[in-house]
Amino acid sequence: xxxxxxxxxxxxxxxxxxxxxxxxxxxxxxxxxxxxxxxxxxxxxxxxxxxxxxxxxxxxxxxxxxxxxxxxxxxxxxxxxxxxxxxxxxxxxxxxxxxxxxxxxxxxxxxxxxxxxxxxxxxxxxxxxxxxxxxxxxxxxxxxxxxxxxxxxxxxxxxxxxxxxxxxxxxxxxxxxxxxxxxxxxxxxxxxxxxxxxxxxxxxxxxxxxxxxxxxxxxxxxxxxxxxxxxxxxxxxxxxxxxxxxxxxxxxxxxxxxxxxxxxxxxxxxxxxxxxxxxxxxxxxxxxxxxxxxxxxxxxxxxxxxxxxxxxxxxxxxxxxxxxxxxxxxxxxxxxxxxxxxxxxxxxxxxxxxxxxxxxxxxxxxxxxxxxxxxxxx
Length: 378
Hints:
Blueprint: H1 8-11, H2 27-30, E1 39-46, E2 50-55, E3 61-65, E4 69-74, E5 77-78, E6 83-84, E7 97-102, E8 108-114, E9 120-128, E10 131-143, E11 155-157, E12 163-167, E13 189-193, E14 219-222, E15 229-232, E16 239-243, E17 249-255, E18 270-271, E19 274-275, E20 290-293, E21 301-306, E22 319-323, E23 328-335, E24 338-348, E25 352-357, E26 363-367, E27 371-377
Antiparallel strand pairs: 1-27, 2-3, 3-4, 4-5, 4-6, 7-8, 8-9, 9-10, 11-12, 12-13, 13-14, 15-16, 16-17, 17-20, 18-19, 21-22, 22-23, 23-24, 25-26, 26-27
């Protein structure tokens, strides 16, 4: 799960850490009165080590529990498990059930987990009338992990209908194998595949490295350390990535919806805007849109979503995120890919490991200790 190298201390608690996201504000939002927005966290249910979530059929929210179960939150009640792979995964290090997603038609459900050998695995299930069809399960993609940390594991479908998969650099500390800048491995990358276009999947023809014999065709972006959580802005289609830092800087990366991919976010030559261990900044380095240091309580960024709901009008268009160690719910105002304001939203979610965007675009925060909060107007 998400955790920086020095967060091995956190691993003892639950070894999940984060990855984050950001986005642009629309023109009508930029003209809104400037005022500090505050939110309230409403506890809607308790799960067992909730690690990820996604909007499901008929207004439901599906919650992944780290040990390998998936439950459905419907009208404030959490179901019995609709899926249980706990015999197929392990929770040592930062492993477990790390991500879940539906495709854009809610016709297929995907799980991202580390198997008993620690291999990152994405499986697919067909969905009929809002229910999983276990007999249709198939493995889409796997990636061997050399260590038990920095596995990444978040998955999302983009506005283009393709599946994006975030993988960390493989673990240990300081990227000892140089995976972040190596285009001949899937580690330390954002992947983009078409799970419906082939068996087990197809490569989109416009992926940035399909004509490069020295690069993996699945790669969309690279130079990532542990992109624990990422998202797409439901209003603009922009991508925001919360990339967990090594020892000094947490960062949020941004790419516009019109991006053709191929961004190099710099790791392990760079940590945020700063050379890492005498590293040299790559000529094509795409710096983060936001970074923060570890001088405060923060230690591991948990990426969230650009708020596009209706319950908190003053928050609309801001990127909501947190930190696993600090737990404060924060947001960024953005315009044209630049941060124009940083905000403390006045609430703490504990050990926040993930955010969930419901079908109505309202947001939930997951505390690895068990609490599932809805983010409401204060």
